[in-house]
Amino acid sequence: MAFGDRILVQARNSSVQIEGLAAAELNRNLGDYLPPNYNVRKMAEAYGRYARTRSNTHDEYMLLRSTFTETKSKSHQVFSSVLASHVPTEKYALNRSLFQGDDHNEIIRGAVRSLQKKGMWKARFRVPPEIVESLKGKILGRMTDIHGDVIERMMTGAPDAPLQIKSNFKWITSFEEMYQIASDPLLLTIVHRYMGVPPIFDVPVSFINSVAPSSEKGLSDTAQLYHHDMYRLGFVKLFIYLTDVGPGSGPHTMIPGTHRERPDALWADGRHTDESVAAHGLLDKEARITGPAGTVFLVDTSALHKGSHPTEEARLIAQVQYANSLFGHPIPEAERPFTAARKSDDPEIQEAGVLVKKYAERTGVRFMQGLI
After folding, report:
1. Which of 36, 117, 191, 266 could bridge across to 262 with cysteines, CB 3.0–4.6 Å?
2. Could you give the residue ranges of the DSSP H alpha helices within 54-172?
3. Residue 202 bridge partners (DSSP)
4. Burial, 264: exposed, middle or buried (Cβ in 10 Å; 0-12, 13-18, 19+)?
5. 193 band by pLDDT with thresholds 50, 70 and 90
6. d(CA 323, CA 339)
7. Does residue 205 contact residue 166 with C-beta atoms inside 8 Å?
8. How does residue 3 score in pLDDT terms, banded at 50, 70 and 90?
9. Pick from 251, 237, 240: nearest CA to 126
């Protein structure tokens, strides 16, 4: 391993070890923060093991999910708050943002307030068209290589097309536009202020949703019924529309404020039908996010949300999760391109490894630690 590469790995390990300070405080003082609870105690112990070993098990991940439901998110709010008191802050060079022309400080204040209150924020600005078209072309091209004319049939509204096709982790991490947008200093500053820590790049993905008719099971399988996400202690998702999305194109849909408060029955992990959400008096608060290609928005998807099923046009979207910690869903070694590239001749893995190193050096090792 080259000296510079070794430094990156050591910095990644140190970034995780800093979380050990938060884990130690939680295990020492948990009773001061939360009422006695067996699962919360077990989660604190699991978090301590993660900070020592940089890994956790599927059972510990499921504990993270169930504890979120049991405590109605209070456990995760406390863990995240303690973590924020130990992780050093970062300042990002706003003059390097893709998004210039407006008062950045005003945008940041408004975005953080909206995320705190509603769990969502839609930007007035858009990703530059040349970046949108480049990323869209790469994604559709790669999907077509794999799935053939299925992709064209999805995009043109064939009734027998699949409901959804997702990107593959290996090739989506080889597209620089994903890092270029997600590492934008303005977006990072907003998420940093909201979560209290410098964000970590996590779970990049792109998918197409078609207008094909669907059963309730099909909608459930493709996340087109209400649900909450829970992969990490705290997180915000960045969404970029790569096609125009109107009311009939499957807009991202959510119930504002449910990242903090909701009826007891709707804290349950799993899918919730519109009828169930309506029965609890929340459907009239539904927000649907529409916009042209290049539209950017942030959502704390621990709130109730779904992708509405397209009825008129297919939707192509890209997203990246910003996390405050990688404790939670286990990350296979194959999904760490920087490390995997040393053992593979696959050109996509090699390209992803180069990009991870580039953006770790540009934005900070913490930002890229999940891919190193």
Report:
1. 266
2. 58-70, 74-84, 104-118, 129-147, 150-155, 169-172
3. 321
4. exposed
5. very high
6. 20
7. yes
8. low
9. 240
Residues 346, 348, 352: CA angle, nearest 5 degrees: 120
Closest CA to 353 of 329, 372, 337, 330: 337
Tokens of 28: 């020492």
What is the average pLDDT score of the chain?
96
Mean pLDDT value across residues 118-128:
98
pLDDT for res 5: 83
Token pair of 191 as six digits: 């998420």
How many other CB atoms are there within 10 angstroms of residue 213's CB atom? 11
Written as six digits, the tokens of 140 are 């559709």
Q: In sequence order, what are the beta bridge partners of 201?
A: 322
The mean pLDDT of 172-200, rounded to a whole number, is 98
Residue 10: other Cβ atoms inside 10 A:
11
Look at residue 100 and give its three-state secondary structure.
Answer: coil
| Lookup: tokens for 5 | 């590469």
What is the chain's Cα-based Rg?
20
Q: Are strands 295-299 and 305-307 parallel, antiparallel or unpaired?
A: unpaired
Tell me what percent of the residues of the chain surpass a pLDDT of 70: 99
- Cα–Cα distance between 52 and 18 in angstroms, integer? 10
Taking the C-alpha atoms of residue 304 and residue 272, their distance in angstroms, rounded to an integer, is 9
DSSP string, 247-267: TTS--EEE-TTTTT---GGGG
| Strands in the chain per DSSP E | 120-126, 164-166, 200-209, 235-241, 252-254, 287-289, 295-299, 305-307, 315-323
> Is 21 exposed, middle or buried (CB count within 10 Å of its CB: 0-12, 13-18, 19+)?
middle
Q: Is 66 helix (H, G, I), strand (E, B) or coil?
A: helix
Question: Model confidence over 296-327: pLDDT tens digits?
Answer: 999 999 999 999 999 999 999 999 999 999 99
Residue labelled with tokens 């080889």: 174
